Amino acid sequence: MESKAKVAGHPVHPMLIVFPLGLLATAVIFDIIYLISDSSQWTLVSYYMIGAGVIGGAAAAVPGWIDWFAIPNGTRAKRIGLLHGVGNVIVLALFILSWILRRDTAETPPTGAIVASLVGFVLSALTGWLGGELVDRLGVGVDKGAHLDAPSSLSKLPAGAGVGSGSGSGSYAGSERRGSAH
Q1: What is the pLDDT of residues 126-177, one digit of tens each?
Q2: Please, what's the largest Cα pairwise distance for the chain?
Q3: How far apart are alpha carbons 146 and 134 in whole angstroms?
Q4: Which residues of 121-141 are buried (b: 16+ CB within 10 A; e: fewer)?
Protein backbone atom coordinates (compact mmCIF):
# COMPACT_ATOMS: atom_id res chain seq x y z
CA MET A 1 0.00 0.00 0.00
CA GLU A 2 1.53 3.23 -1.17
CA SER A 3 1.84 6.19 1.20
CA LYS A 4 -0.65 9.03 0.74
CA ALA A 5 1.64 11.66 2.30
CA LYS A 6 4.77 11.94 0.14
CA VAL A 7 7.51 14.42 -0.70
CA ALA A 8 9.78 13.81 -3.70
CA GLY A 9 8.27 10.33 -4.07
CA HIS A 10 8.95 9.16 -0.50
CA PRO A 11 6.62 8.79 2.50
CA VAL A 12 6.89 11.79 4.85
CA HIS A 13 6.24 9.97 8.15
CA PRO A 14 9.47 7.90 8.16
CA MET A 15 11.46 10.98 7.09
CA LEU A 16 10.16 13.02 10.05
CA ILE A 17 10.11 10.40 12.80
CA VAL A 18 13.91 10.24 13.06
CA PHE A 19 14.02 13.72 14.63
CA PRO A 20 11.71 13.21 17.63
CA LEU A 21 12.99 9.67 18.14
CA GLY A 22 16.58 10.89 18.26
CA LEU A 23 15.81 13.87 20.47
CA LEU A 24 13.69 11.96 22.98
CA ALA A 25 16.04 8.97 23.17
CA THR A 26 19.03 11.26 23.69
CA ALA A 27 17.13 13.13 26.42
CA VAL A 28 16.73 9.82 28.26
CA ILE A 29 20.43 9.05 27.83
CA PHE A 30 21.26 12.50 29.22
CA ASP A 31 18.99 11.84 32.21
CA ILE A 32 20.89 8.60 32.87
CA ILE A 33 24.20 10.46 32.65
CA TYR A 34 22.79 12.97 35.16
CA LEU A 35 21.83 10.15 37.54
CA ILE A 36 25.36 8.75 37.33
CA SER A 37 27.31 12.02 37.39
CA ASP A 38 24.98 14.34 39.33
CA SER A 39 25.90 17.07 36.80
CA SER A 40 22.77 19.15 36.16
CA GLN A 41 23.90 20.39 32.74
CA TRP A 42 22.64 17.09 31.32
CA THR A 43 19.09 17.49 32.59
CA LEU A 44 18.92 21.11 31.43
CA VAL A 45 19.78 20.00 27.89
CA SER A 46 17.38 17.07 28.27
CA TYR A 47 14.56 19.49 29.12
CA TYR A 48 15.02 21.38 25.84
CA MET A 49 15.44 18.19 23.85
CA ILE A 50 12.15 16.86 25.21
CA GLY A 51 10.39 20.06 24.16
CA ALA A 52 11.81 19.83 20.64
CA GLY A 53 11.13 16.08 20.46
CA VAL A 54 7.47 16.50 21.42
CA ILE A 55 6.99 19.16 18.74
CA GLY A 56 8.72 16.92 16.20
CA GLY A 57 6.61 13.94 17.25
CA ALA A 58 3.41 15.91 16.75
CA ALA A 59 4.62 16.95 13.29
CA ALA A 60 5.53 13.36 12.36
CA ALA A 61 2.12 12.13 13.53
CA VAL A 62 0.21 14.10 10.89
CA PRO A 63 1.45 12.18 7.81
CA GLY A 64 1.28 8.98 9.86
CA TRP A 65 -2.42 9.50 10.50
CA ILE A 66 -2.98 10.39 6.82
CA ASP A 67 -1.45 7.07 5.82
CA TRP A 68 -3.37 5.18 8.52
CA PHE A 69 -6.71 6.53 7.29
CA ALA A 70 -5.90 5.10 3.82
CA ILE A 71 -5.38 1.54 5.13
CA PRO A 72 -8.42 -0.62 4.34
CA ASN A 73 -10.70 -1.35 7.30
CA GLY A 74 -10.78 -4.84 8.74
CA THR A 75 -7.13 -5.56 7.94
CA ARG A 76 -4.31 -6.54 10.28
CA ALA A 77 -2.45 -3.45 9.03
CA LYS A 78 -5.30 -1.21 10.23
CA ARG A 79 -5.20 -2.81 13.70
CA ILE A 80 -1.39 -2.67 13.97
CA GLY A 81 -1.44 0.92 12.68
CA LEU A 82 -3.93 1.89 15.37
CA LEU A 83 -1.76 0.33 18.09
CA HIS A 84 1.30 2.09 16.63
CA GLY A 85 -0.44 5.47 16.52
CA VAL A 86 -2.16 5.29 19.91
CA GLY A 87 1.03 3.96 21.47
CA ASN A 88 2.96 6.93 20.10
CA VAL A 89 0.34 9.35 21.45
CA ILE A 90 0.96 7.77 24.86
CA VAL A 91 4.74 8.14 24.32
CA LEU A 92 4.28 11.84 23.57
CA ALA A 93 1.98 12.23 26.59
CA LEU A 94 4.62 10.69 28.86
CA PHE A 95 7.30 13.02 27.52
CA ILE A 96 4.95 16.02 27.83
CA LEU A 97 4.36 14.99 31.46
CA SER A 98 8.12 14.75 31.98
CA TRP A 99 8.61 18.20 30.43
CA ILE A 100 5.87 19.76 32.59
CA LEU A 101 7.29 18.18 35.76
CA ARG A 102 10.71 19.63 34.90
CA ARG A 103 9.49 23.14 34.05
CA ASP A 104 10.25 24.78 37.38
CA THR A 105 13.36 22.73 38.18
CA ALA A 106 14.87 21.73 34.82
CA GLU A 107 18.34 21.29 36.29
CA THR A 108 17.15 19.03 39.11
CA PRO A 109 14.04 17.27 37.83
CA PRO A 110 11.84 15.28 40.19
CA THR A 111 12.03 11.51 40.03
CA GLY A 112 8.61 11.35 38.35
CA ALA A 113 9.91 13.35 35.38
CA ILE A 114 12.75 10.93 34.78
CA VAL A 115 10.50 7.90 35.27
CA ALA A 116 7.97 9.28 32.74
CA SER A 117 10.75 9.73 30.18
CA LEU A 118 12.11 6.23 30.79
CA VAL A 119 8.66 4.65 30.41
CA GLY A 120 8.07 6.70 27.25
CA PHE A 121 11.40 5.53 25.87
CA VAL A 122 10.63 1.85 26.54
CA LEU A 123 7.17 2.21 24.99
CA SER A 124 8.68 3.93 21.93
CA ALA A 125 10.75 0.78 21.30
CA LEU A 126 7.52 -1.22 21.10
CA THR A 127 5.74 1.32 18.88
CA GLY A 128 8.83 1.51 16.66
CA TRP A 129 8.68 -2.25 16.25
CA LEU A 130 5.01 -1.95 15.30
CA GLY A 131 5.96 0.68 12.70
CA GLY A 132 8.53 -1.72 11.30
CA GLU A 133 5.87 -4.42 11.17
CA LEU A 134 3.64 -2.09 9.16
CA VAL A 135 6.32 -1.37 6.57
CA ASP A 136 8.47 -4.50 6.46
CA ARG A 137 5.84 -7.17 6.98
CA LEU A 138 2.60 -5.57 5.82
CA GLY A 139 3.93 -3.30 3.06
CA VAL A 140 2.34 -0.07 4.30
CA GLY A 141 4.04 2.90 2.67
CA VAL A 142 5.76 0.75 0.04
CA ASP A 143 5.25 1.65 -3.62
CA LYS A 144 3.34 -0.88 -5.71
CA GLY A 145 5.83 -2.83 -7.79
CA ALA A 146 8.83 -1.87 -5.64
CA HIS A 147 11.87 -4.03 -6.38
CA LEU A 148 15.64 -4.01 -6.07
CA ASP A 149 16.22 -2.30 -9.44
CA ALA A 150 13.26 0.11 -9.36
CA PRO A 151 13.91 3.51 -10.96
CA SER A 152 14.55 6.53 -8.72
CA SER A 153 11.46 8.12 -7.24
CA LEU A 154 12.73 11.41 -8.72
CA SER A 155 12.43 9.93 -12.25
CA LYS A 156 8.62 10.14 -12.04
CA LEU A 157 8.48 6.54 -13.32
CA PRO A 158 6.42 4.05 -11.32
CA ALA A 159 8.38 1.68 -9.07
CA GLY A 160 7.38 -1.24 -11.30
CA ALA A 161 8.74 0.36 -14.47
CA GLY A 162 10.99 -2.04 -16.34
CA VAL A 163 9.65 -5.12 -14.57
CA GLY A 164 9.66 -7.99 -17.02
CA SER A 165 11.35 -5.96 -19.75
CA GLY A 166 14.31 -8.33 -19.85
CA SER A 167 16.74 -5.44 -19.39
CA GLY A 168 19.41 -5.34 -16.73
CA SER A 169 19.69 -8.21 -14.30
CA GLY A 170 16.30 -9.76 -14.91
CA SER A 171 12.68 -9.20 -14.13
CA TYR A 172 11.15 -9.07 -10.68
CA ALA A 173 7.72 -9.86 -9.37
CA GLY A 174 8.02 -7.09 -6.82
CA SER A 175 9.22 -8.91 -3.71
CA GLU A 176 11.90 -11.19 -5.16
CA ARG A 177 15.49 -10.68 -4.14
CA ARG A 178 18.58 -11.16 -6.29
CA GLY A 179 20.17 -14.51 -5.84
CA SER A 180 17.34 -16.07 -3.88
CA ALA A 181 16.20 -19.49 -4.97
CA HIS A 182 12.49 -20.16 -5.20
Answers
A1: 999 999 999 999 999 888 888 888 898 888 888 888 765 544 444 444 444 4
A2: 66
A3: 16
A4: beebeebbebbebbeeebbbb
